[in-house]
Design a protein that fits this description.
- The structure holds 2 protein chains of 2 kinds.
- Helix content of chain A is 37%, strand content 32%.
- Chain A has 6 helices and 7 strands; from the N terminus they run E-H-H-H-E-E-H-E-H-E-H-E-E.
- Chain A has a 7-stranded mixed sheet with strand order 1-2-3-4-5-7-6, sandwiched between helices.
- The longest helix of chain A is centred in the last third of the chain and has 19 residues.
- By secondary structure, chain B is mainly α.
- Chain B has 4 helices and 1 strand, in the order H-E-H-H-H.
- The two termini of chain B are 30 Å apart.
- Classes of the chains: A alpha+beta, B mainly alpha.
- At the A-B interface, strand 1, helix 1, helix 2, helix 3 and strand 3 of A face helix 1, strand 1, helix 2, helix 3 and helix 4 of B.
Amino acid sequence: MNKQFSLYSLDKFLQNYSANKVKKLLLTFKCSINKDIEHFLHNKAITFEKKLRSRTYLLLENETNEVAGYFSVAISVLYSDEVADEIVLEIGDLNIPKDIPCFLIGQIAKSDKFKNIKIGNILMQTAIEKLETTNKIVGGRFILLDALNNKKVIEFYEDFGFITIEETNESIKMIRSF
Amino acid sequence: MTKAFLEPTVINKKNLHLFMKVFSKEHKEKVKQVNERLKKEKVELEKIINNKLIEDIMKHYE
């Protein structure tokens, strides 16, 4: 791969430029196979960032200055109320709380223009690395992930150690430990 | 997906058996292997990431 990229948090742009200007940059991202992912970056990421609901990281292609891919992470909780006793019994760990603190990779995708370039690995590796750093500082038991229910997509996440915990026709929830 | 930020993730009787895999030896071994692989790949990653100045990027969106 000869292309060079820049990796910045969305927050870094918002600290220096107006939301309207930053939105122009975000609009360069196109994702025809998953409009939800495109819609989030175009219309919600800035609000989520300002309200501290999530943090978005942008991978920008240096030649075109366009968004090649992005991921959004957040703090999350895994609720296990109904089966908390079974979990404790099964693993013999009394320290597992009913509400398990986790991190969430809510969005991760590359732009249509870069679909033949292997930047998915860059995004995933960076996301895991950032969450690992956070985990070392504040704790947190697992990484949760929500994705399209698609064989290729699932295999990609499995390659990073994720396992499926919930499945609908449309989407899938996966988890991995640190 | 966006709904992941809005909806809670729940472990219940239906998905408990899937969730329990996260405590298995196999999963721990897999994560260890992945982490080792990611460490090796980090060198390659650093060759590709070459941060441009934000001002130079935003010039194109003035």
